[in-house]
Amino acid sequence: MNLKFLSFLGVLMLVGSLFTSSVNAKSENAKKSLVALGDSITYGYNLDNNNHPSKAAFPSVMGRQMDTRVRNLGVEGWPTHQLLMALKEDEKFRQAVRHADVVTLNIGSNDFLHGLLASIENPDIWPGVTTNMLKNIGDIMTEIQALTDAKIVVYNIFNPFPADSGVHAYVDYLLPPINEGIKKIALGSGENVVFADAYEAFGNDQAIYIIQDDNHPTALGHELLAKIGFEALNFK
């Protein structure tokens, strides 16, 4: 092997070493990523024109607080089984979760509300609604954790109905066991999972935190969701 070739090889190795160091430095200095999974609550529905996830929605509020990039994958109307299917089959969702440093999960409100309406005509279906929802949330957690070791914030379900309505009182009767199930799933999923209690945070203050004649959070409601999510992450 001649000296010229050895010299050329040495230059290539030096350049390769510098390039690798540069790439690593860029990766280390890049902003972390928050991926938000859920339904129209995550999306920030009815906060603005609904053409895209709202910058006032809680994932974006959290992103500003944490100085992270935000990928809001909330989809209006989704129940738990649709998110579960997306995590299993949709590469957009799978890749986003793979590259996440933080994942927020806020799902189940549509299962609950649709089941509530259906159970008015047929009360016998209610146990199946809650059982299926909690099973799906558990399976969603399994899928997320198979894709990433990111920190995960799991939200429970708040009561969206006005505090002075009979519906509010009935929902307050139905939600606690469901929310206890969601909490059990979250806290039993490992040390990288934290729980954010939206039900307790919203309490009976729907006039402040829920859009009038709607069941979606106001901007203040989203700020509250961001606050309890941020605090849950800091607790860990």
Automatic annotation (TrEMBL):
Signal sequence region: 1-25
SUPFAM superfamilies, per the entry: SGNH hydrolase
Domain SGNH hydrolase-type esterase: from-to ranges: 36-224
Lineage: superkingdom: Bacteria
Keywords of this entry: Hydrolase, Signal
Tagged with keyword Hydrolase: yes
A GO molecular function held by the record: hydrolase activity
Annotated PANTHER family: THIOESTERASE 1/PROTEASE 1/LYSOPHOSPHOLIPASE L1
Record protein name field: SGNH/GDSL hydrolase family protein
InterPro entries: Ester_Hydrolysis_Enzymes, SGNH_hydro, SGNH_hydro_sf
Membrane-spanning ranges: none
Pfam families assigned: Lipase_GDSL_2
